[in-house]
Structures are given as C-alpha cells and as structure tokens.
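To illustrate the input format used throughout this study, we show a single complete record. The first block contains the structure-token representation of the backbone; no residue identities are included at this stage. The design step must infer an amino acid for every position from geometry alone.
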C-alpha cells in the first residue's frame, strides 16, 4: 500500500487487527494473536484456526462434562470460565464475550438435562406436585434474567459470575448437606420468589440452575433425593428456554463471532455436546466408587482461584 510521499507501507497481517486478550480486554492494534494460524498455515489459516478452535472446545467439553458428573455441580460452573478464557484467544469481541459464553453454555446443557430429567422421572424421584408449583415461577425468573442478559454489559456479568463462583466453591468446601436454614420449603409466594431468583440468576450467567437448586432445597430441609430430581427439572427449564432466549437476544448483533446464532456459538454446541454426554456419566460412575471429600475440596479451591482471577481482571480494567 502506498502513502502520499511514495513510501511503501506493509499490508496489515491478520494478526494486526484488534482482538481480545485472555481476559476479554481488547489488545492494542498490532499486538500478535496468542496463536497466529496465519503465520503458521498461510492460505489455510482459516481452516486451521477453526480446527484448533474446535479441538479446544472438544477438550473443554470433556473436562466440563466429567467435572460436572464427578462433583454434581453442573457443567456450567466450569464451562463458562473455560469460554471466558478461550473465546478471546480466538477474537471474540470483549463486549459480547460473557453473553456468548452464557448462551452457548445453556445450549450445550440442553441434551444432558433432558436425559437426566427423564432418568429421575423414571426412577420415581420426581415430586410432580412440587415441580408444578416451582417451574412457573422459575420461568418468570428466566425471562427476567434474559432481560438482564440483553442489556447488562459483559464485564458486569463477569463480575457477578465471579462472585457466584466463589460462593459456590465455598459451599463445596463446607458441604451442601451441612447448611440448614429452615425446617421446610416455603409455600406460595415464598417458594415462587426463590424459584424466580434462581431462574433469573442462572440464565443471566449461563448456568442451568441445578447447582443452585439442590443446595437451596437441601438447606430448606427438602430430601436430597427429591432435591436432585427437582434440580434436573430446573436445569431443563432454564437451559432450554434460556438457550432460545439467548438466540433472540443476540440476533443481529454485529460483534458476534463466526458460527454464532444470536448469542449461541453453534460450532461449540456441535463439538461439545457429544463430549459432555460421554464424560458426564463417567464422572458420575467414578463419584460412586470413590471418597471424593478431599478431591472436592481441592476442586473448590481451584474454583476459588478462578473466581479471584476473574474478579482481579475486572478491577484491573476498571
């Protein structure tokens, strides 16, 4: 490219564009990609980059599915942080990083929640009278959460997620069966408020809700077996409606990455769902054969470190 004085300027390389850093913070113009497929693969850069991206997503699916099954926390608590670290490396705009992470996480959760909910119902664990009084308020909360997702800035949602992740890891350290706040689950409006709050918080952060529902109901003296069953109905409701709402929320956004349908990364869903479905049952089987107290505590500390890193990242940028 020529300048006004005849000096020949180098054409910009793909790595000269503004991209996101690991934290979601835009890099300065001219900063190289953390991994630059254009330099390594030349004209095959786009295909090579897509293959590398798909491979990273597949590994993330294996890890989140196994951890979710092993610790019973729901894969979203691990999936969303993985997305927040991974997406910026492949150029996802920082303004939509959390929105795409949340929407994609919910979509990935749908097939697994269908299977889990069906299994709990067939086993006779599902208290249908409780579910009928729980799910309508839950869905109202989901709609509220989708409104929050639509208008809240990405960095604010990331900070809220970091706080929630820290509290969840703290609850894992304490033990979910050791917290008791009441002798029974409230009836009527009290129950509706709890369900709506779980629905709103879950969908805004890309978590299907099971990780919130089980410890909440157990703390309210609801039987653990029944609580686990209700949590699968919660997860199915939040994930399915939340994924559809995320598509609608992101429709027409000019900052969306390739392969996106609204705030749902279709490639990530296609690659990760089989991985999650394979490793999640493996994690459940391993959990039934081992004493996981020490491992759970180590994993909780790891989640605390991730939450702290996300929070420090936020305050460093603001």
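Output of the design step:
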């Amino acid at each position: 490219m020529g300048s006004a004085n005849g000096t020949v300027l180098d054409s910009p390389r793909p790595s000269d564009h503004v991209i996101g850093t690991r934290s979601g913070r835009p890099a300065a113009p001219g900063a190289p990609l953390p991994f630059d497929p254009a330099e390594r693969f030349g004209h095959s850069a786009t295909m090579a980059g897509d293959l590398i991206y798909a491979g990273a997503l597949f590994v993330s699916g294996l890890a989140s599915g196994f951890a979710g099954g092993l610790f019973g926390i729901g894969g979203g608590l691990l999936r969303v942080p993985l997305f927040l670290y991974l997406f910026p490396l492949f150029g996802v705009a920082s303004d939509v990083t959390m929105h795409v992470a949340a929407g994609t996480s919910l979509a990935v959760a749908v097939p697994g929640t269908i299977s889990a909910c069906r299994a709990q119902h067939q086993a006779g664990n599902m208290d249908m009278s409780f579910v009928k009084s729980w799910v309508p308020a839950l869905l109202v909360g989901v709609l509220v959460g989708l409104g929050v997702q639509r208008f809240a800035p990405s960095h604010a949602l990331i900070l809220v997620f970091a706080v929630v992740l820290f509290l969840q890891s703290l609850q894992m350290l304490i033990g979910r069966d050791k917290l008791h706040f009441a002798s029974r689950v409230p009836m009527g409006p009290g129950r509706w408020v709890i369900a709506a709050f779980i629905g709103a918080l879950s969908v805004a952060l890309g978590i299907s809700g099971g990780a919130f529902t089980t410890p909440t109901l157990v703390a309210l003296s609801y039987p653990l077996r029944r609580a686990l069953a209700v949590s699968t109905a919660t997860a199915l409701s939040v994930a399915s409606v939340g994924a559809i709402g995320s598509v609608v929320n992101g429709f027409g956004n000019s900052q969306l990455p390739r392969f996106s349908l609204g705030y749902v990364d279709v490639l990530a869903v296609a690659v990760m769902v089989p991985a999650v479905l394979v490793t999640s049952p493996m994690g459940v089987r391993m959990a039934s054969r081992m004493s996981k107290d020490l491992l759970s505590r180590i994993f909780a500390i790891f989640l605390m470190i991730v939450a702290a890193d996300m929070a420090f990242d936020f305050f460093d940028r603001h």
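Structural context for interpreting the output: The radius of gyration is 21 Å. The CA atoms of residues 209 and 235 lie 5 Å apart.
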